[in-house]
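Ticket reopened. Same input as before:
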Amino acid sequence: MIRSLPSTPLYKNGYRVYIALFFIFLVLPLLTISVLAFNDSNFIALPWKGFSLDWFFANTDNRVGLFYDDDLLRSIWVSLLTAFVMAILSTVVGTIASLLFEQEKFKFKGLLYFFAIAPLIIPGVILGISILVSSTYVGNIISDKFHIDASFFSPGFWLVVLGQFSFGATYAMLMVGARLKRFDPTLEEAALSLKATRLQSIYYITIPFLKPAIIGAFAVTFLISFSNFNTTIFLVGSDPTLPVEMFSRIKYSSTPVLNAVSFMIVLVVSIIAMINLFMSRKN
Amino acid sequence: MSGNKKAFYFLLLPVLLWLVLLIIIPHIDLFINSFKVVDDNGNSTWSLANYSDFFSDKIYWRTYINTALYAIGVTILAFIVTFPVAFYLTKVVSKKYAGFFTLLLLIPLWVGELVTIYGWMIILGDHGVINETLMWLGIIKKPIKLLYTDFSMIIGLLYMSMLFMIVPIMTTLDSLDDSLIEAASDLGASKWTIIWRIVIPHSMPGIVNGSIIVFMLVIGDYVAPNILGGKSSLWFTEQIYDQFLSTFNWNEGSAFGFLLLILSSVIVWVALKISGQKLEKVGQ
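Engineering reply: fixed in the latest deploy. New output:
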């Protein structure tokens, strides 16, 4: 049953088969896309028509490869930029929030904490539409009353960043907070008794201790942003992010270039994962 | 102002801005908006019409109930499918490989929902991997309709959410002392008894956390029902998207959004009550 207990061969092998089937289920979509990215065909699915790099490098009338597809490349750039800004914002505010909720005592703390973790149980769709409704309302008031350009409040880059940040900060807060729970408060007391201010002790003592969790939170919020669709779709302006661009192509004009871009994502993620595994083995 | 007070406000201010401007006010606005209608002249007035539309039109509340039931079903399915895997990775497989397998679990999550759902669309299509393989083997002559059905939608929903079930369960199983299982086994308990009386009770907090997150993700998902589901597979988020992005009736869309929020909150609240857990624990 467990490592230290003997089991019958039937049980052991049956269990192994189930686990194997589960992992096949897990990697099947990733494997399928990756293989079909190299299919010499104009359709996204089978049959296999031979190996080709067209969907990466071709630039002809009926085949435009990933590296010549300007709209797709642009959406990748938009996604990277969005993810970078959103991850920084989420990590900074999430870290501050974890310090506030773990180390400070104040009135209405419980209520405020409830709102901070609420994004975990609010569907992303609703965060998207509520921020859209709200910012449009504010934008209309500003442009009506003051006759100034209020494009900041209409769908576009910054609204996407803010929409994703509204729940990204929650994830960052929980990740950093988990490490903060193991922080030895006597370290800070020592700093304070040596005449450091609270902010100095946070900066010189607490933040360095939290560093691994802060880096982890940045990476996770970056990935959350890069793949987000449900919230982003409502807040996106004329510059779609990669998932939004992919979605509209899947619905209206799918070519195997979608397989190529998916393959690139799978490749990059796998490489990062391998580096991660290698580093953790080393430690 | 003393240094401590200054530090406190320094920490409080950004958090307040985040929660008030991006969580609290938008949801109040959504609530207010859902009780308004706009007439042909562009004037908005208070009204219950958005909610009465929901109850009078069969397609809306049927979709609502359908979504709730399917989401509960997918959550249960996710538990059944992943629990043996979580147990295997924490208790059975040698520690040497556990890290590699756990990492493999996370890759689809990092790759993102849109890519993996697109992958399933290719696998399940008429010229997909499954149909082509079965035809090549001579088992079937014509493709079976797998894509654009409830089946394909459930596969997609299960795939994109199950990792959020497995990770919290693995965390709780990690803290289960192997000697408890050994002791039970020495005293003659069967495998089922051990699972029912020791393993499941111990991993309950993880199961509840996982279920809440899976349910929430599934009920709020749009990509899997829209790309993999058929014409008859109705999902409530699709109604919200239509109101906002096709018919531009934001007031009705706001009402639908609020109804979805109520549905997810009520079910999560019931799950927490039954299990005696606190919401504060869900994120951990």
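The CA atoms of residues 55 and 61 of chain B lie 6 Å apart. Chain B has a mean pLDDT of 84. Please confirm and we'll close it.
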